Recover the amino acids of this structure.
């Protein structure tokens, strides 16, 4: 999950894009980047960290008057959070830049093909293949190159593309990741979600799966993936910015409940193969012998993660026929637990920073057990303690909350 924004209009693009990114930060916040088109050159600023720390580099010290650009705030799925892995990603010649939300499941295969054709990659992400694929198909018509590239891709994506030969447009497309197009006055937008643009554009189109759009300053055209023009329905949004953050739902919890199908798709995306019916857990890091000598599994976690562990116990016992205990990490760490080298301990933590779970993992390891972590936050403490990992890819915890939305939630709860 991450946030994308694209802008073409009359204002300095970097300012509009940065503002939009701050409103999308709840979708991802380990790194961010902006690319603008100025005098047939693409200028890029990207770095690791939270947006407020990147403000100087990306906006204050970035003197570009460009009125056309794309931006991205990332929640890493492939490749650690770093400046190189931050989006947008470019092709070999700096001709185009792509911001991508989602997971390209067949990126390894595509990357091998592109490498053998001589493409040079700068990042560890799945997303960079999109830039090189579009480059490989580009023959003067950007929309066609994007379409051809997306025909090669398996996975989920919302993308925004900018090309130095096309200073009049942005191109975007989606499959299984949200993307909207917004129309302002003399300016138009692409965004992952309404809050990014609600201050500038109130008329929006929700792209459906396998639809694309070309965004000019004065008009927007919509296409299917064969390149046929399509008609789209415009929606006028009278939400205020706080309501926009909740996506039209009356509160955040309801919004998160409705996001669950997408989160589950993200979790299994790229790890299940329709071709051979197998599951690929590339970060697992445990060898066959580690797994096969397991005589008992102990799941340790706290809070909600503990309850998901209890569901895991039923599933694992049913499918694997190995006894599973589910333990509160805070109890486990203080009670001389029965684990040894034939025990596989599974530690679950969204943040990877749960103190009791971390301590319980150390306790288990000191007794010779192998530990598998199920974690959402990349590069968190737990990911460094465990022997193997499965990332959940559920997106960031909690929401970007400003004073207004805090106040609105308080009134919602009947408090002052
Ligand atoms: N899969 C991409 C990456 O890891 C995009 C992740 C996102 O949606 O933020 O860079």
């Amino acid at each position: 999950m991450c946030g994308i924004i694209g802008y073409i209009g009359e204002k300095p693009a970097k300012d509009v894009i940065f503002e939009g990114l701050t409103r999308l930060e709840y979708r991802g916040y380990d790194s961010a980047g902006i690319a603008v088109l100025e005098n047939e050159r693409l200028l890029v600023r990207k770095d690791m960290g939270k947006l407020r720390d990147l403000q100087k580099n990306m906006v204050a010290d970035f003197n570009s008057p460009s009125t056309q650009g794309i931006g991205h705030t990332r929640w890493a799925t492939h490749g650690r959070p770093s400046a190189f892995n931050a989006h947008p990603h470019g092709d070999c010649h700096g001709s185009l830049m792509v911001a991508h939300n989602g997971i390209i499941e067949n990126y390894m295969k595509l990357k091998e093909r592109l490498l053998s054709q001589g493409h040079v990659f700068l990042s560890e992400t799945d997303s960079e293949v999109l830039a090189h694929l579009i480059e490989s198909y580009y023959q003067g018509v950007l929309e066609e190159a994007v379409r051809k590239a997306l025909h090669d891709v398996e996975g989920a994506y919302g993308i925004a593309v900018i090309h130095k030969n096309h200073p009049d447009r942005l191109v975007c497309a989606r499959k299984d990741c949200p993307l909207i197009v917004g129309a302002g006055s003399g300016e138009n937008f692409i965004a992952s979600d309404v809050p990014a643009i609600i201050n500038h554009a109130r008329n929006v189109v929700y792209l459906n799966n396998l639809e694309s759009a070309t965004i000019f300053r004065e008009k927007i055209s919509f296409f299917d993936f064969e390149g046929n023009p399509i008609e789209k329905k415009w929606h006028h949004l009278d939400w205020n910015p706080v309501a926009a953050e909740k996506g039209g739902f009356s509160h955040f919890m309801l919004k998160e409940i409705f996001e669950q199908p997408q989160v589950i798709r993200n979790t299994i995306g790229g790890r299940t193969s329709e071709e051979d019916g197998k599951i690929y857990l590339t970060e697992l890091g445990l060898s066959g012998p580690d797994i096969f000598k397991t005589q008992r599994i102990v799941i340790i976690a706290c809070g909600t993660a503990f309850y998901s562990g209890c569901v895991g116990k039923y599933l694992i016992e049913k499918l694997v026929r190995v006894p599973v205990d589910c333990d509160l990490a805070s109890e486990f760490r203080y009670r001389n637990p029965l684990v040894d080298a034939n025990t596989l301990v599974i530690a679950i933590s969204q943040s990877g920073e749960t103190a009791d779970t971390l301590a319980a993992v150390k306790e288990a390891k000191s007794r010779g057990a192998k530990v598998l972590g199920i974690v959402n936050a990349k590069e968190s403490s737990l990911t460094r303690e465990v022997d193997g990992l499965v990332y959940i890819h559920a997106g960031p915890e909690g929401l970007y909350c400003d004073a207004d939305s805090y106040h609105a939630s308080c009134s919602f709860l009947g408090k002052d």
